Amino acid sequence: MTRQRNHAPSSLQRRLVARAGLALGLAAGLCPLAGAQERYPSRPIEMIVPWGPGGGADVLGRIVGRWLETDLKTPVPVSNLAGASGMIGLGRLAQLPADGHALAVLTGDSLMMAASPAPTFRIAETTALAVLVRQPSGLFLPPGGRYKSWDDVVKALQAKPGSVTVAITGPNTADDLTVRYLASRGLSLVGVPYTKPGERYAAVVGGHVDLLYEQAGDLRGFLDAGQLKPILFFAEQRLAAPFADVPVSRELGYEILLPQVRALLVRSGTDTQRLQALSRSIERFVASPEYRQFIEQQLALPDSFLPLARAQPFLQSELEVSRKLLATYGVK
After folding, report:
1. 323 is a domain residue
2. Family assignment (predicted)?
3. N or C: which terminal CB in the chain sees fewer CB atoms within 10 Å?
4. Which domain holds residue 50?
């Protein structure tokens, strides 16, 4: 008689199977967590605008924020952290984790501050995702003021140095260096600093200062309403209509330009995949009608946009120019 073999698993086999099942269960439970950690963005992306509401940096931060909200499907709240020519807001970005969940708008004024000998914020602490705006700066005044043209201002300063005031953003900014450069040419304007854009605009429209250093695009509403007009642009050549009759610095022999630049920054050290995700979204924004309309509204250069690969070298080049100007004309 043939004895049938017992195929029931031994106690050792049962323990091994149980352990294997437990291990598989744990692995299955951990997989969703690992996937969640890799998902980007996993929470709101903070858009830091280092200036007060109403200026060009604020407008740019909000329009880009709205785009990213739709394109990346995550909230993008805007934080206005004004002060120290943008250093307070940029300093906050430098303190946050390098995880792509915080961006900041850099302006030419802040770039100038970063070029100072002992800056509180360093460009090397960030990576430029893109340069989105490049536009010439200028001097503006109310049509009903005591001066009507740049020639009027020159005559007044030649007759009485320091008799003309101009609203600027703060010391050692592009505004301030331009004022100091003009003083070296015998035209001693008095710079009056205002941290918030709205305060600068109200000061000149209200007659508290004579001139305003700004970019035409930031003043579009005032220009269209006839409350302000440009009398001088700091540019290589004359602008197109409606400003073709406004003189530019180069034709008058002033060797200073300092165009306004607005770029989008993220913390340096941010993961490459997250950088690319943000960069691709920004490139889609630049190809959109919203961006083209914004550039036209801002009276910015049509080729303002510089992508991720070109943005950082461009800012570094501008930083070196700013350092040389600060060494010559800056407050020591």
Report:
1. yes
2. Belongs to the UPF0065 (bug) family.
3. N
4. 46-134+259-329
